[in-house]
């Protein structure tokens, strides 16, 4: 699967699972995204897709790498709807 396609799917999943923050941006906790059955079936390497989307400035989150358990409460913020 090509990276651009996976990033587009990621944006759709963040919109589906997320909520709006005070700034009107859609956000979702990493743990919610990681533990979602649909996301588990779509993304072979969720962390890699998140990193690629962050590099393209489509999303933002604290840190460089997110790990299950340790970073479950980290907000992933969608910068472009």
From TrEMBL:
Species this protein is from? Acanthochromis polyacanthus (spiny chromis)
Family that this chain belongs to = Belongs to the costars family.
The protein in question is named Costars family protein ABRACL
- Locate the coiled-coil region(s) and give their ranges: none
Write down the InterPro entries for this protein, in alphabetical order.
Costars (IPR044302), Costars_dom (IPR027817), Costars_sf (IPR038095)
What's an example GO BP annotation here?
regulation of actin filament-based process
Q: What Pfam families does this protein's entry cite?
A: Costars
* Limits of the Costars domain: 1-79
Taxonomy of origin reads:
Eukaryota, Metazoa, Chordata, Craniata, Vertebrata
């Amino acid at each position: 699967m090509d990276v651009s396609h996976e990033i587009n799917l990621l944006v759709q999943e963040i919109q589906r699972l997320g909520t709006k923050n005070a700034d009107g941006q859609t956000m979702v906790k990493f743990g919610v995204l990681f533990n979602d059955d649909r996301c588990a079936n779509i993304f072979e390497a969720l962390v890699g897709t998140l990193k690629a989307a962050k590099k393209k400035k489509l999303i933002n989150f604290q840190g460089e790498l997110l790990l299950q358990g340790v970073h479950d409460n980290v907000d992933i913020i969608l910068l472009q709807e």
